[in-house]
Amino acid sequence: MKKVALLLALGVTSASAFAFSPQAASSVGTRWRSTSSRVVPPPLRKSPSALVSAASTRALMTTRLHAASMDPDDEIATIHRNADATFAVIDVDGGGTLSRAEFTNHLSASGYNTETIDKIFNKMDVNKDQEISREEFRDGMLLLAALQTAPGLGSYNAEFAKEICEDADQVFSSADADGNGEIDRDELRSHIGRSFANYSEGAIDEIFRQIDVNDDGTITKEEFQAAFLKSSALRQAIGEGPNYK
Question: What distance in Å separates the CA atoms of residue 80 and residue 148, rounded to the nearest whole number?
Fold first, then answer.
């Protein structure tokens, strides 16, 4: 259903546009969930050809959230925080924008094919400068609600909380070099640098900042688990453990 919802949001009519194989699904750390190899959606209605302005996006979300009896400001702030965490993981060079190459590399590893990746990128790149800014990414995650639970972008498979927390604990133990129960900035740099050398130092610092929710300069096990639960992008980027493949 999540895959169909994303297809609907993007206006993708090809049955192969969002195909997941077991190998692709496992790259997101989701081996506990079986996936079909293809999704054939029902007849689709075309979505808008471009994202609306930031103000219009917020107005649209406010209407939706009021209808769902939620506090719009709180819900939008949460979506923005989650979007920022995903943005930090995709922004491998730490440049503050997402290039098409960074976006493609990340979503390819999540199991998306080129057609779907290009559709998402083009919808988010509102000013058509071939980069996605942080604000454009936030607006895209607001407008395309299906992305909020999509593989590699949102909280995909967050219902498997026990397994995800086990994987988070495995990574945490690997990164906590001095064994004091916290991860400092240098430990995270060292851990990511050992296995994921393509991340710049600035990018790792931003990932640290997103995980360190209380901004006290260290990451606790609870903060790390929470980050893994809400961000399939983080799981994909640095995941390991008994349930990760």
Answer: 10
Nearest CA to 203 out of 85, 78, 124 is that of 85
Residue with tokens 């060079």, as numbered in its chain: 93
Residue 191 identity:
H
Q: How far apart are CA 36 and CA 235, in angstroms?
A: 21
For the whole prediction, is pTM greater than 0.85? no
Exposed e or buried b per residue across 123-162, where buried means at least 16 C-beta atoms within 10 angstroms of its C-beta: bbbbeeeebbbbebbbbbbbbbbbbbbbbbbbbbbeebee
Would you mind telling me the total number of residues written for the chain in this entry? 245
Cα(162)–Cα(176) distance, integer angstroms: 21
d(CA 9, CA 148): 12
pLDDT digits (tens, 9 = 90+) for 8-52: 556 554 434 444 433 444 444 443 343 333 333 333 333 333 333
